[in-house]
Amino acid sequence: MSSVTPFPCKNPDSRFDSGADAVPEPVWVKQDLLVPRYDDAIFARPDLSQIIGDAEENRSMFSACSRDRSGKIISGLREWARRAVLEEAARYTSELTGSTVSLPQDLNDRLLLMTGHQPALYHPGVWVKNLLIGKVARQTAGLSLNLIVDNDLVSSTSIRVPQGDRSAPFFAEVSFDESIKKKPWEETTIQNRGLFQSFAQRVDETLKQWPELPAPLLREIWPAAIKHMDVSDRLADCLAAARHAQEQRWGIENLELPISRLCTTSPFLWFACYLFKFAEQFRTTHNEVLGEYRKVNRVRSKTHPVPELSEQEGWIESPFWIWRAGETRRHQLFVKRDQENIQLSDGKAVITTLPMSENCDLSAAIEILKQLPAQGIRLRTRALTTTLFTRLFLSDLFVHGIGGAKYDEMTDRIFTRFFHLTPPRYLTLSATKFLPFCAPYDVQHCDETCLERILRDLDFNSDRHLTADQRSEAAPLLQRKQTLIREQHAASSDQSKLIDQMERRRHNRQRFRELRDLDAKLALLTSKLRGQINEDLDTVRQQMKANAVIQSREISFVLYPESVLKELFDKLTFE
Predict the structure, then answer these.
(1) What are residue 112's DSSP bridge partners?
(2) Is the pLDDT of residue 5 over 50?
(3) Domain spanning 18-309+384-440+554-575, CATH class
(4) 152 vs 330: CA distance, rounded Å
């Protein structure tokens, strides 16, 4: 837990919007945030050339924000939060690396770039966020911090490794630990040390059938994961140690901090208490913005991008998770206020009571929340709340993946409506890099579509595909078809003749049946061509199925050769 003393609170009125004028907010526009589909492609919005300028602009904006908020000037809140969180990050990073990490004395004068993700063995398109912030920090003499999102649920304890051959590749699961029931990363320890230690060797064995693929990065980084088991048996820590070791080899010196430890710092607890105190106002703003997001993006799901915050019998849902140590399920957090106190509940029982009268500051409530970890109670942020806190109190620029950027379409409006602040800029970054274990087939979805259209045309317009000899042989059939078509056009265009409607329909049905019989007879002449097209279509579909594996962007970065990843890293240019 952070040793930084709580920020002194001199003004009991802790409304961010007290005396504040309305702040213009971004206009809702449907975003086309799409992952890059092609190899070696990087998606950045805005362009990477703006990253330093945007970070400096955000910094200037917050520095100029001198209006009093709860007796705390925004710039002062940020200095307090930044020092507390970075001190905690330095401690954790020291544990991760085994070397002391020191912070510069002037850390508040340096740019701070941040990103975050689950501690999984994710694909390279996620890893580029860490590499970029480290690269920018190194060039600007700034700081970079990666948040390890260990409050999310572990979805898998294995990675997918390509198997088969080029014509029929498939993915096999190779485990780095035993399968477990879904639970938060921070509650997950390594279950089978032998399985964990042999992971790299088993992956090597699985990849032997792709002899042209150079040695995977896993060989280089896994010893760091095994070594870290002597420090911590938490799965998240060991995986982070392996990734971080490789980043250091490339000259990246990001600080690391799990969300579980971020949530124990005094500034975060101040932020949580603030949202508890104004839970009803936050819920109203949150749900209002969520409804607008769904309307603009035509989302019908009641859970995307997040569920609404609920209210029942005076209990208001707050955007945090809460659970007890050892539990596999996270619970929603509900708050209920009377004149003097705020109660916290997991929906089943009251967890604790915080002193929160109108005229008191938040210090006493913070001290009570600091006691929860000793009682085995986890108070954790949700995704949207994480970026609210980090963008408001910590970072000069936050780098999102495409999923996180969708959340922040909402976050920007909450900045303006609830906090009455101009939302700071952020960067959306993703990439696609195919694992070069075999060459993809030169086939596209349009090839399949084209062949399907030809087959359909052979059903109804076989005459278009006949050879000269076939057209001569089928001349009577072709002539009769043309006659029927002319009759149909004439019947459709000539409305002057007073023909009984029933009679017209009878003639139309007769022509349709005869045309269908003629098409069936003509189709028999193209049976050989049809067979060839079907064979081609089967080949195209098989090759597209193979390409879905060969060109998958979801393959873990640990399977890639270091040289391939380094090439992608070198493409992250921002000058």
Answers:
(1) 143
(2) no
(3) alpha beta
(4) 9
